[in-house]
């Protein structure tokens, strides 16, 4: 059974570093529970507050988890005319917030945070993540807030990896997919996400962080080669000067120019495919 907890937001306000973003329409945000094969995933659902069904976007979180920053990003996207679902992909370990994060995550706090987050990330295997993705997509297909037809994906950090895997695992359900400052997208391991390129039918966009240790040049080249060889419609760009995590305004990695470029690229992709 889906549990709904209304949280109405009108003209959602982004965090301070994002001031100056375009005016938004009124949106309605709701906490929902999504049944999966392994339990119940808590999630955030937001859509324009007009009572109509809108094209759906599944937003995959970064490693810091479902928190105000991601809800703010989802609100902004919903204000552009989309129904956005942000699941807590770490739900097997508890409801969000799973970690006690500071309001602003600075470099000094990161080692302690990742000491706790690391094992949780590692526990989310491709197999588990894709079982969950099927549940999220199925839930959206049944949601009256989501328009009929395929959905779009967007993901950040580890979420970009989930985007690529989901686009390849559920090609009939995904029309467009975007990933930003993603890591480990094209490794030399047998479970690397880029290996699903051959089944992807969606149009893809990736905005890579500049000099990102989690996605070195050889992986960027390997990903590009895999997508090109498979005939996938795609565009991959490296954002000069933008560090890993550049979209996240509650962290020291935030890079305003890169973040706004990401919004332009994402919205352009959605307008082309919906």
UniProtKB/TrEMBL annotation:
The keyword Hydrolase applies. GO terms for molecular function: hydrolase activity. Residues 42-273 form the Dienelactone hydrolase domain. Residues 1-26 are annotated as: Disordered. The keyword Cell inner membrane does not apply. Keywords: Hydrolase. It comes from the Bacteria. PANTHER family: CARBOXYMETHYLENEBUTENOLIDASE HOMOLOG, CARBOXYMETHYLENEBUTENOLIDASE-RELATED. This is Hydrolase.
């Amino acid at each position: 059974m889906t549990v709904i907890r209304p949280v109405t937001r009108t003209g959602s306000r982004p965090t301070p570093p994002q001031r100056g973003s375009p005016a938004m329409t009124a949106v309605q945000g709701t906490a929902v529970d999504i049944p999966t094969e392994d339990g119940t995933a808590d999630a955030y659902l937001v859509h324009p507050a007009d009572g109509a069904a809108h094209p759906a976007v599944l937003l995959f979180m970064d490693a810091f988890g479902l928190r105000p920053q991601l809800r703010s990003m989802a609100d902004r996207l919903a204000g552009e005319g989309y129904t956005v679902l942000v699941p807590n992909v770490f739900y097997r370990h508890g409801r969000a917030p799973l970690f006690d994060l500071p309001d602003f995550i600075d470099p000094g706090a990161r080692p302690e945070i990742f000491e706790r987050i690391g094992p949780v990330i590692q526990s989310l295997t491709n197999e588990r993540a894709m079982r969950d993705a099927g549940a999220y997509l199925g839930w959206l297909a049944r949601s009256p807030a989501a328009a009929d037809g395929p959905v779009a994906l967007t993901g950040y950090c580890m979420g970009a990896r989930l985007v690529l895997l989901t686009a390849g695992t559920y090609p009939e359900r995904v029309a467009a997919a975007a990933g930003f400052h993603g890591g480990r997208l094209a490794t030399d391991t047998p479970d690397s996400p880029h290996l699903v390129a051959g089944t992807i039918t969606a149009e893809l966009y990736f905005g890579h962080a500049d000099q990102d240790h989690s996605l070195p040049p050889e992986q960027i080249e390997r990903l590009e080669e895999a997508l090109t060889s498979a005939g996938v419609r795609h565009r991959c760009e490296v954002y000069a000067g933008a560090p890993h995590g550049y979209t996240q305004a509650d962290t020291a990695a935030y890079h305003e120019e890169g973040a706004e470029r990401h919004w332009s690229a994402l919205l352009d992709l959605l307008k082309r495919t919906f």
